[in-house]
Specification:
alpha+beta, Gyrase A, domain 2, 4 strands, 4-alpha-hydroxytetrahydrobiopterin dehydratase activity, Pterin_deHydtase, Putative pterin-4-alpha-carbinolamine dehydratase
C-alpha cells in the first residue's frame, strides 16, 4: 500500500492541466476528433493496466476526462501522480 499524500505534497507535485477534486485528481484532455480521443483513452488504458492502477475514463465528443485516486488508501498517493505524468506522456 502507498501512503496518502498531504495537501501540500499534492499541490507541489500536481502536473500542469491537472486539478484536484476532493480525493481525486482530474484532467480533461481535448481533441479535434472523436476517434483521436478514443485512441488516447485506449492508450491510457494500456498504461494503466501495465501499472495495475486504473483510472475512471469518460469519453465525450471532443474530450476525454481522466480521474485518479487510490481507492484502497482512500485518497491521492504517489501512484496517482505517477500515472498522471505517464498519461500526459501519451499525448
Amino acid at each position: 500500500m502507498a501512503d496518502l499524500l498531504s495537501d501540500d505534497e499534492i499541490d507541489a507535485q500536481l502536473g500542469s492541466g491537472w486539478e484536484r477534486d476532493g480525493d481525486e485528481i482530474v484532467r480533461v484532455y481535448e481533441f479535434d476528433d472523436y476517434l483521436d480521443g478514443v485512441a488516447f483513452a485506449a492508450s491510457v488504458g494500456e498504461v494503466a493496466e501495465e501499472e495495475f492502477h486504473h483510472p475512471e475514463i469518460t469519453i465525450r465528443y471532443q474530450e476525454v476526462e481522466v480521474r485518479l485516486t487510490s481507492h484502497e488508501e482512500g485518497g491521492i498517493t504517489d501512484k496517482d501522480l505517477r500515472l498522471a505524468d505517464l498519461f500526459d506522456d501519451e499525448l
